[in-house]
Each structure stands twice: as C-alpha cells, then as structure tokens.
Amino acid sequence: MLNRDIVDIFTGLGLAVLGLVIVLYASSHYHLGTLQRMGPGMVPMGIGAIIALLGAALAGGGMLRPRVALPSIEWRPLLAILGGILTFAVAVPRMGLAPAIAAMTLVTSLADRQLRLRTVGLLIVFLVLAAVVIFRLALGMNIPIVRWAF
C-alpha cells in the first residue's frame, strides 16, 4: 500500500463515505417513492449512490497505480480565484450584479501571469450582458443590476 497512489485512494474513500452518508440520510429521512412516482428522496439518494460508486472507482484505480509525485501548489491562481469568489459574495448585496461581476472578473484575472486588460475588459462586458440576459430577462429574477448601498 505504501507504493500506491495514496491521494487517489484517500480521496476516493472519502467520496465513497460521503456518498453512502447521503444515501443513508436520504433513505431514512425522505420518502423515496417508486420509479413511476418519485418521492423527494429519490434524487438525493441517486446522486449519493453515484458519488459513492465514483469514489470507489477512484480508490480502486489508485490501488492499481504506482505512487505519483505530488505537484507543487501554485498559490497565485488559488488565492486569486478564492479572492474573486469572496469579492463577488461581498459585492453583490452592496453594489449589485454588474459591478460585482466586474470586480470578481478583475480579481480572478490576476491568476493569469499574462494579464491583458483588453481581454479582461471584453470578458467583463460579455459576463455582465450574459448575466443580465439570463437572470433578468430570461428568468425574470429581481436581482438589482446596479445598486450603491454606501
């Protein structure tokens, strides 16, 4: 076991356990129903079973593979993406959807070392327009596009 891919083994076992917990919880707390008349517990139980099977397959594959060297962690992309998520979560209630998307895109674009402002600007315009079309026009959600709560 020491000469095997430990990361995949432990990750797969963790996913398998998580999937089994979801299956047990869904089957004991929700009505499952039948395949013709599904109850509220059928989908969570099915998803939990899929997660458990994929986790078992990942762990099994890790047992068959020799050990793989762990790659080094690249901190810049990790921190930029986490910062972008945090920026979006803080900015949406205070500034609205469009400024929050712009701020998130600016922060997450720092993950790339070859930053091009024109590309980032075009991405911001596209993401804001797509969000307005999808959430406001197509789905009719009442999300403020621009709001200043300062």
From TrEMBL:
<feature type="transmembrane region" description="Helical">
    <location>
        <begin position="79"/>
        <end position="107"/>
    </location>
</feature>
<feature type="transmembrane region" description="Helical">
    <location>
        <begin position="38"/>
        <end position="59"/>
    </location>
</feature>
<keyword id="KW-0472">Membrane</keyword>
<feature type="transmembrane region" description="Helical">
    <location>
        <begin position="6"/>
        <end position="26"/>
    </location>
</feature>
<protein>
    <submittedName>
        <fullName>Tripartite tricarboxylate transporter TctB family protein</fullName>
    </submittedName>
</protein>
<keyword id="KW-0812">Transmembrane</keyword>
<keyword id="KW-1133">Transmembrane helix</keyword>
<dbReference type="Pfam" id="PF07331">
    <property type="entry name" value="TctB"/>
</dbReference>
<dbReference type="InterPro" id="IPR009936">
    <property type="entry name" value="DUF1468"/>
</dbReference>
<feature type="domain" description="DUF1468">
    <location>
        <begin position="12"/>
        <end position="144"/>
    </location>
</feature>
<feature type="transmembrane region" description="Helical">
    <location>
        <begin position="119"/>
        <end position="139"/>
    </location>
</feature>
